[in-house]
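no rush on this but wanted to send it before i forget. theres a chain ive been looking at and ive put its sequence and its fold in token form underneath. i want to understand how the tokens follow from the sequence so walk me through it. thanks a lot i owe you, the record is right below:
>
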Amino acid sequence: MKSITFLMHNIYGMGGTVKTVSNLANELVKEGHTVKIISVFQSKSEPYFELDHRVKVVSLIDYQLKVRNFVSLCANRIRRFTPLLKPKYLTAHEPGLRQYSSYVERKLLRAIQQDTSDVIIGTRASYNILIARYGNAKQWRIGMEHMNFTAHSEAYRKEIVRHYTKLDALTTLTSQDRVQYLQVLPHTPVFIVANMISEKRYNMMKKNQIIAAGRFEYEKGFDLLIEAVHAIQDDLREEGYTVQIFGDGKEKEALTQAINYLHLQDIIFLRPTTQQLSTYIAESKVTCVPSRNEGFGLTILEAMNQGSIAVSFDGNVGPSSLIRHNENGFLVPYGNVEKLGIQLLDVLQNLHGHHLKAIRDAGYETVAAHAPERIYQQFNHMLQTLEHRS
């Protein structure tokens, strides 16, 4: 069995990529692989999602307020006030560039170059580029993409194409994204390794509520959901519906202001992140994923697993790859807030009986296709293909 290292931004934080890698790491050790996660940053004492005890976690920069972390904390504080400590090799297109100093970068490059696993896997574009450029040629260097290709800026796409040619393989979450990458990387093997779902299914009475969850950032589109709710607020009030949005992030204050400005405080509630999200989804009639960009949409699978009807935007690679309109969920035209509100209301008011059961059953079938053993088969197919080529 191959030994595998994942290079992660912060395995201790909340997010779809964190959950995906945690699930995959757990499944890999169950299948007999040796797995290590290098977490560039550590923000808490324990990883956010539960990891099998056989998964080894190594953090490079510990941001917890402890005396032993003094150097790490100071290096990045100074970085904010002088260009002297800015990174030299990390792409300028890295979304979290301000978190990286030359000190962090040196530790990151050293970790890549000194890793001795059979396989090293980056989990964001900037790490994939570093692995391609500086990784050990004796390893299989694999880039794992959690964003669809067109979501990157044009300049970033050019840099990605230039360096991804040096990777031994690339994985995407969807077949649509695989096609896009094959068009620009015809000589790089591209495989689908979708997100897996392993949550327990709860049989709970559904409440009159819509749920949404994710990072409070522009790309997640929670402002669009607020606009959609504003348009149907009278119907929601009359029928006693609420909207629960779970998450945290830099857009939290803006979202709060929008809710207050539109006088929706009695309908929309912002909730903190939770590790019991599945239970809240299980008691919600509808799950809305209003993302402007969504590489996959793990929340959609979680909704289907709990029998909560998923509603999202079409023309968005992740949701469009999972949801078949009026079969296992509902899609509305991309960015159309009015149609989103109408669709949410229609599901709440008119989806009953056999139609509701048919959509839930179809959702369960979609979930089954993303069970841990099915996704491991995809991952193992990649390893076997690379073995035959080597």
Observations:
- The mean pLDDT is 93.
- The radius of gyration is 21 Å.
- DSSP finds 15 helices and 13 strands in the chain.
- The first helix runs from residue 16 to 30.
